[in-house]
Design a protein that fits this description.
Layout (H helix, E strand, L loop, with lengths): L4 H25 L3 E6 L6 H14 L4 E7 L4 H7 L5 E5 L8 H11 L6 E5 L6 H4 L6 E7 L6 H4 L1 H5 L3 E5 L11 H11 L4 E4 L8 H12 L16 E3 L5 E3 L12
Parallel strand pairs: 1-4, 1-5, 2-3, 2-4, 5-6, 6-7
Antiparallel strand pairs: 8-9
Protein name: Hydrogenase nickel incorporation protein HypB
Family: Belongs to the SIMIBI class G3E GTPase family. HypB/HupM subfamily.
Keywords: GTP-binding, Hydrolase, Metal-binding, Nickel, Nucleotide-binding, Zinc
Length: 256
């Protein structure tokens, strides 16, 4: 009997989840925490990460970054100016990263001294949201220019985030961005998640974001996203409904 596309997708995700879980355990034994950054293209994620990396280097935090794109090494060059070890990961057209590919780069490149690894995922809020990379912290970034209803349009991405970062806040007024509506939409899909407001241009929110990441690295209490699966093998959606299987949901996340 031929497998349905849904069955094939479930099998692919289940295999990825297993690899991600083992990678997370291995990295925890090495004292490394992975932070997975998700966003749409043009959110300002790269500039935000560059500022966070530079601040971490100033504070002598053993940090490194992997940045993924379909083509070019432009983002790696920008991030490397921070002084942190950086590597470009080209996906050759693939719209997301997977745990298998991340493991390859971690094994062949990650400096031994690293305690914090930022992974800048491909700019896309659909496919990357489905794949656990072995991260302990998932951060979803969104610019005010993208519209306050974006969390409702991409509930899996926002509903699986441990932290949400609103970027380009200096454009709030020109973009006619409704901050109150945005906050309400975020809480609807991910009740209790913190939203950090930031502006990479003037440095607003950079220290706050880094502090949240370092607190998680040091074992502080972590927000549990509603789309993280429960021990009995299924996940709860934003409204509390059961969602069978992993089916593209974040799995096994914990802070070492």
């Amino acid at each position: 009997m031929c497998e349905s596309m849904d069955e094939v997708s479930q099998a692919v995700l289940a295999k990825n989840d297993g690899l991600a879980a083992s990678l997370r355990e291995e990295l925890a034994e090495r004292g490394v925490m992975v932070v997975n950054l998700l966003s749409s293209p043009g959110s300002g994620k790269t500039e935000l990460l560059a500022r966070v990396l530079a601040r971490a280097v100033e504070r002598r935090v053993p940090v490194a970054a992997l940045t993924a794109d379909l083509a070019t090494e432009n983002d790696a060059q920008r991030l490397a100016r921070s002084g942190a070890p950086v590597k470009q990961l080209l996906t050759d057209g693939l719209c997301h990263l997977e745990a298998r590919r991340l493991r390859t780069h971690v094994e062949s490149w990650l400096p031994d001294s690293t305690a914090l690894l930022f992974v800048e995922n491909v700019g896309n809020l659909v496919c990357p949201a489905a794949y656990d990379l072995g991260e302990s912290l998932r951060i979803v970034c969104m610019a005010v220019t993208e519209g306050e209803d974006k969390p409702l349009k991409y509930p899996t991405a926002f509903g699986s985030a441990h932290l949400v970062v609103l970027t380009k806040t200096d454009l709030t007024e020109p973009a006619a961005f409704d901050a109150a509506a945005f906050d309400a939409h975020v809480q609807r899909v991910n009740p209790g998640v913190e939203v950090v407001r930031s502006c990479a241009r003037d440095g607003d929110g950079i220290d706050t974001l880094l502090e949240r990441v370092l607190a998680a690295r040091d074992g502080g209490p972590a927000h549990r996203p509603p789309l993280a699966p429960h021990p009995h093998g299924h996940s709860h959606g934003p409204a509390g409904e059961d969602v069978e299987g992993s089916a593209g949901l974040l799995t096994g996340h914990r802070v070492p």
